[in-house]
Amino acid sequence: LDNIxxxxxxxxxxxxxxxxxxxxILLLTLTILTIWLFKHRRFRFLHETGLAMIYGLLVGVVLxxxxxxxxxxxxxxxxxxxxxxxxxxxxxxxxxxxxxxxxGEISANDVDDIQDNEMLRKVTFDPEVFFNILxxxxxxxxxxxxxxxxxxxxxxxxxxxxxxGTVVSCFIIGLFMYGCVMLMKQIGHMxxxxxxxxxxxxxxxVSATDPVTVLAIxxxxxxxxxxxALLFGESVLNDAVAVVxxxxxxxYQPEGDNTHTFEAxxxxxxxxxxxxxxxxxxxxxxATGVVTxxxxxxxxxxxxxxxxxxxxxxxxxWSTFLLAEACGFTGVVAVLFCGMTQAHYTFNNxxxxxxxxxxxxxxxxxxxxxxxxxxxxxxxxxxxxxxxxNPIFIVGAxxxxxxxxxxxxxxxxxxxxLGRRNKISSNFQHMMMFAGLRGAMTFALxxxxxxxxxxxxxxxxTLLVVFFTVWICGGGTTQMLSCQKIRSCFLVCCRLKYxxxxxxxxxxxxxxxxxxxxxxxxxxxxxxxxxxxxFFRIWYNFxxxxxxPILTHSGPPLNATLPACCGPLARCLTSxxxxxxxxxxxxxxxxxxxxxxxxxxxxxxxxxxxxxxGAHTSGTPVGxxxxxxxxxxxxxxxxxxxxxxxxxxxxxxxxxDSEPPLPLDSHRHRHKNETMS
Amino acid sequence: LDNIxxxxxxxxxxxxxxxxxxxxILLLTLTILTIWLFKHRRFRFLHETGLAMIYGLLVGVVLxxxxxxxxxxxxxxxxxxxxxxxxxxxxxxxxxxxxxxxxGEISANDVDDIQDNEMLRKVTFDPEVFFNILxxxxxxxxxxxxxxxxxxxxxxxxxxxxxxGTVVSCFIIGLFMYGCVMLMKQIGHMxxxxxxxxxxxxxxxVSATDPVTVLAIxxxxxxxxxxxALLFGESVLNDAVAVVxxxxxxxYQPEGDNTHTFEAxxxxxxxxxxxxxxxxxxxxxxATGVVTxxxxxxxxxxxxxxxxxxxxxxxxxWSTFLLAEACGFTGVVAVLFCGMTQAHYTFNNxxxxxxxxxxxxxxxxxxxxxxxxxxxxxxxxxxxxxxxxNPIFIVGAxxxxxxxxxxxxxxxxxxxxLGRRNKISSNFQHMMMFAGLRGAMTFALxxxxxxxxxxxxxxxxTLLVVFFTVWICGGGTTQMLSCQKIRSCFLVCCRLKYxxxxxxxxxxxxxxxxxxxxxxxxxxxxxxxxxxxxFFRIWYNFxxxxxxPILTHSGPPLNATLPACCGPLARCLTSxxxxxxxxxxxxxxxxxxxxxxxxxxxxxxxxxxxxxxGAHTSGTPVGxxxxxxxxxxxxxxxxxxxxxxxxxxxxxxxxxDSEPPLPLDSHRHRHKNETMS
Lengths: 677, 677
Description:
Chains A, B: One of its GO terms (molecular function) is potassium:proton antiporter activity. With about 675 residues, chain A is mainly α. Chain A is about 65% helix and about 5% strand.
């Protein structure tokens, strides 16, 4: 009989879990349907993530105030006194043994809450779920879809923003918040401990920017590729930096009695941890990526079985995360670099079908995980029980976040502009300042540990920062873009194809679009061969001559690029097939650079639209693989400019709803259609 | 300091978890690479699932015997005496509260084991993982990829095998096993209780057949479509029947003292539960499918955003499972019928890109889940701690399984043949008998509860049954097919396209293939219009005239099929778009029927191969949508026959390895290529 009762309880609990998860699924479904409506109506003031948060908030309110489930007291009331808290506990109930697993510590004042709010507790996920299940696909997708060419072109600046910028921002915010905390202590607004390390930790977690909403609009409006690369690259890398930075700050533990004073050794140790964990995760991620590339390079017949290929790709990418976590590195960081390596090398070895499949798979996972996190964020504002909202801290945090971003962007941009030929203009700087949104990573870092008073206050404040930035900054992106006169082109679309008519509004929009983008000087700046950074050039040469031939079927055969003395080694590393396929298989990188030519614009040419239909038939020249890397680089850059000319002659979609819009998500397909027509 | 220790422990535990999961991921990776090798070498004696089991066994042996991790005694030794076993336990450790969740009961003699085998315990998953995470995508995929036309053609027989057959098999096996148990009790081989309900439960769980290995070979060898539909349909539906049957048997609880005697009321109640749960799950699954179809029907512009469409499809399908579980029905069964409804209706409303995406997504999930389950099966033979291997029970079980299958197939086929025009021939019956493999569902049902002696014995025996059937029956499929002279055609392939040469071996293989398939009488039997079952005809008419127009963009407009008096209703239900699109959008069902014409054969025509290249250019006639359903049915059947003629003139791939094989998995693509050429 006792058994049956236990089974009934387990069943009841399972039902409840299913119902709770169902709430989230329905939330996501609702979000998708509304997003579709927004996309269909070209309503750009609210991104899907912002919408998911609003729905989450609504459901949170309902769960908190409208539903009261009488708690099953039997379920939770028991307490027993033991001397330690093992991970597994065996409980002896009149001769029967039951196994219990540790879920976590609960602060003493929550014990009553737990008994009261069975329902709210149920919809609260283990914070580690975010780190171990939801973040990895998001971060991997970011790495996998990083626009390769523009990323590498701006690599120096991106690294500067991501490393120097994040560390600077972290310390500025930390110092500023420490001032606030001191003030709060003075006027007695502080209800618990709040040390300098806590301030720094707060600085680290809110330094992780996540301009997903901004980038979505950039993508839709076809904003400048360099700006896109700078923002996206910075946000992706500073997530990684912030994760490692925050864990190094937590690891700062001076020895001796006073554990919250400055100590050089502990500081050095933290710094060592930062370097060790970051480089370890980086190495692991790159290593798994390279292994996958080598497998797909050597098992070429795997291309005949896209299912196996995709499964292998997925498993190898996942194993990066697990391996890093098992080794004590940071899985999320490893996954990011694994994604970048996969995009750069493995992607070229995959069959076209697998290329599509992997991209679509991670796109879907990213979409679901992201919206889930944001709707959970909305929900948790009402369902989390230990919120500590302190007005001074909140106002301080907003100021600090603003200040931190400003000190990150403006001085760094100034310094970078000293070295850059293709300067980061002031309107770009303002836009980057504006696009310092906080999102999934900040949330995941702040919810990870909400045990102490300081952490609870940080969590509550972080939620508000995320809400504000996503709604206000995300929603104002279009306005900000036009205010800053940053060139953007409303969705490029062969309208003639659909309507069969030439529409006057089309020409007008085109003209408006031109005016908007060319800017005051009327001449577009393009990076040319001579402007490309030395860093990029060195990297490109090494990559093109040695890495690509070893890891992919693209690039020149190794013995053409290695010195003569290395001939045997080159023959050994280059498969005979590489020579055979040399002509067929070309570098698919261009495929990854979605925004390359698309962004550029047909300036000063108002007769554009009349010859639009014909212009595309000329197609883009895709030659063989050049042996000389300089030549290849030149060609690649020239190729970009050539594309500019061809793609420039293109129509612009007017803002009415009567036309079926082209799929915004599937850039590539439009691309294909054009080359086919 | 205490906090830090807890955190360290949690981190250690997380690392260990990551490492364990990594073992499985690497196992799957290894399996994939080996499968690829097998596929490449056309080695058909071992299917991927069989291989996954072997690798699982090897890793199990290593974990069990080669690795000894000294257990952290601190972790598990504590016991405390309380009076009940609540789902959540609060433990008061010197003023701090820790929350523990119930994992399950442990038999008293395992308490020492637990402390010994930390490592083995770690690689043991919660059995509910199989039911709630791994099985749903497998079952959904089965429903989604069910070959619609042949399935409905044989619906009566499939339902008979699935319902009557499974129940008969369950009782036969139960009775036989009860005899064995009696014998064991007589000779004192029984170490615990084993009631008749336990025997019936065993009968229910081993009645779920899973001929995944056989069907994979059928697919590769292009075996008869009716046989394929019979086997696949039966196995898919009998999984559902077995799940509900086993839960009804568990629910059999006579009142009063003697809980293991026969009682009519309890029996009726069990029967009621069976009917209620099955029909409830069925209704829920179909309902969610219909809702998804309606959404995709009405939100037609959703087609422009394949990502949103795919995400919506995925979420709606998942919510079926959760909804069913939350309502107390069986999620797995609901998911099956949801998948079938989605394939029949929603699939037609999706954009072509989403059709591909959803198919590929569920194909991948199915592949990963299936191989994971089978490798876990191998592993658990060594890592599970409470195996009870009883020779009499095992031998009895093998006999019972054989007997149960025989009593299921032969008498039922005899009865069905009385009503069928297109008889199920005796070699088909032998093949169905042979293909009664046990797989993932049987395993998941048996591992769900291993608390009692009886259940442990069942679990151990079930594992052996699965191993034997998957390896022996799965491996012998090719032999059995040729032994039973069942027509199968080695992979159809336009060899000329690849080699540019006409190969003598090609002709020879073709000839052999013909001989094999035409059989002794030399005339192929084809189902014609007159042979199609009345059940199928009624269903087809209703579906074609009323359901398809309401739920999809295919089929005739409703007001053409409804009586004149229902005119307003018809106009209301049919969107104006349906009329517009009437011509463009055709029923994509033919897409789902992969094996339709492909299986049929060019008999008596040995000059086949010479005109093969030209024959395909004629293409398949795809007309508009016929308003009269009889006409449509006729055309559809005739169309199948027409395809027979066209596709019959096709080359057969010889058995050498030098040629790059066409992707076996992507039938559809080959199909496309043919129509394009």
